């Protein structure tokens, strides 16, 4: 029996953080690089693009979806991922998380743009700030549009003609004068693109704060970098920063009953999927998982995924479940279950015999778990009632040093509550 039951993020305004004198970026500004405040003073004061004027769903392009999702992350603390439009039209119901919905072909591009901007946000803001009179006064919609345009120009080295596309998008989301402002700023950014500012290597200055320099170059909060420097030293801290900024790799858990198991599915996928998709057997859980380096969206579009024969799940989370070693007939409590990958893996290891009570703070997220459980043939559903950095790039900007003690207290509270519900000599396990 599987029983799901249910037990804001704060956003900070853009505040450019100080940088060491040797950091890459514009220093002494020429006349061509001076702030463009005289163009549109009311736009730089944040009056042009208001959240209430931004469309809330069904954007027409990947770029529009990315801008709107960045705005939602800034103002509402929502998640990075963007849903496919088919998700909202199924059974005529709206998406459970109120996610933006785009066509399937735009979903991959939009989600990648959002994650990329968030992973580069501090450095992008540093490079944009000389061209803005009052960056902190910009409405989030306009600031995020500029971040996205700068990201495509500087990181992806897109041609300068994309500036016109962002100008049109600014007009669409606001009015014609916003288009002129965006054009002026992004034309300045193309000068940085021509100078290959983004590609310049890190040059440390011994006279400047190391945490500020690393935090700016690798786009992490200085307080976080400082903690890591104290705990791990400079070399390992840089390794952590680089790891957080790499494209994440994903695991694919293969459901029981799939002919040939993971190896059989791998052979089938290698025949069916495009050549650019890179998938292999899992190094750590070869009997249960595949490892995906590139092409996750292509795999998600496969009929095996829609049929519930494979699910996206990190191998590290899978190792937690294997360490728990759930057995048929046991009763298991998953106190922080959504989106449910560990819960469903445990259920498969229990061979459908036993009981899992799945809790989460958000009832809406448990609906996703409930839907996935049905695909795997789990029964006895009860409707829910209210009650990590590389893949969540937004979290680095939504956490402050004071949050750490609160999070530790929350972890201890959850463990204490869970401990009161397990019998003597039972296993109490916390995922790192």
Automatic annotation (TrEMBL):
What processes does the entry annotate via GO biological process terms?
A: regulation of DNA-templated transcription; RNA methylation
- Name the UniProt record assigns to this protein: SAM-dependent MTase RsmB/NOP-type domain-containing protein
PANTHER family for this protein:
NOL1_NOP2_SUN FAMILY PROTEIN _ ANTITERMINATION NUSB DOMAIN-CONTAINING PROTEIN, NOP2 YEAST -RELATED NOL1/NOP2/FMU SUN DOMAIN-CONTAINING
Supply the SUPFAM superfamilies for this chain.
Answer: NusB-like (SSF48013), S-adenosyl-L-methionine-dependent methyltransferases (SSF53335)
Which residues take part in binding S-adenosyl-L-methionine? 336-342, 360, 394, 416
Q: Name one GO molecular function term.
A: RNA methyltransferase activity
A Pfam family (short name) is Methyltr_RsmB-F
State the UniProt keywords alphabetically. Methyltransferase, RNA-binding, S-adenosyl-L-methionine, Transferase
Species of provenance:
Apatococcus fuscideae
> Is the keyword Iron-sulfur in the record?
no
Q: Where is this region: Disordered?
A: 1-33
Would you identify the family this protein belongs to, as annotated?
Belongs to the class I-like SAM-binding methyltransferase superfamily. RsmB/NOP family.
Residues of the SAM-dependent MTase RsmB/NOP-type domain: 240-432
